[in-house]
Design brief:
Belongs to the AHA1 family. The protein has 155 residues and is α+β, with helices and mostly antiparallel strands. It contains three helices and seven strands. The longest helix is centred in the last third of the chain and has 22 residues.
């Protein structure tokens, strides 16, 4: 198994609410892109064996060249497991010519009820070596902060 990147955050919302935001197309487009990016989902099939294709666009690509083009990362994501209120397992493949971004990365979103809401832990395994670990973990943390803002505003 390759490298493992991880981030977690407690979100002031019940697990069912957080789980819903992980499986709602418009929600994902809003909160999943980390700071400095915007996202658009091109294909959506929210079931085990289904998945989605997301185009992430850098708002300023000068210091962060994309994996697919100078300004974009395109990723095909398959849903490997969906356990309501507990876990979402995704298999992500980046569209890139550079072999440093090749392979399938597994992203597991684990939800655990706490007194304060839901602890969301994201674990990325088999991360392609071209993805900088510190940048990736900061990106996951940014997405988690966006998710918290999104679901907490809805309560």
């Amino acid at each position: 198994m390759g490298r493992i990147d991880r981030a977690s955050r407690v979100i002031a919302a019940p697990p069912a609410t957080v789980y819903g935001a992980l499986l709602h197309r418009e929600s994902l487009e809003e909160w999943l892109p980390p700071d400095g990016m915007r996202g658009r989902i091109e294909r959506w099939d929210p079931r085990p064996g289904g998945g989605f294709r997301m185009v992430l666009t850098y708002l300023d690509s000068a210091g962060s060249p994309g994996k697919t083009s100078d300004a974009t990362d395109v990723v095909d994501v398959g849903f490997a497991a969906l356990v309501p209120g507990e876990r979402v397992v995704q298999r992500a493949v980046f569209e890139a010519d550079d072999p440093a971004y090749a392979g399938t990365m597994t992203m597991t979103w684990h939800l655990a009820a706490t007194d304060a809401g839901t602890e969301v832990t994201v674990t990325a395994t088999d991360v392609p070596p071209g993805i900088d670990q510190a940048v990736h973990e900061a990106g996951i943390a940014s997405s988690l902060a966006n998710l918290a803002s999104y679901v907490e505003a809805g309560d």
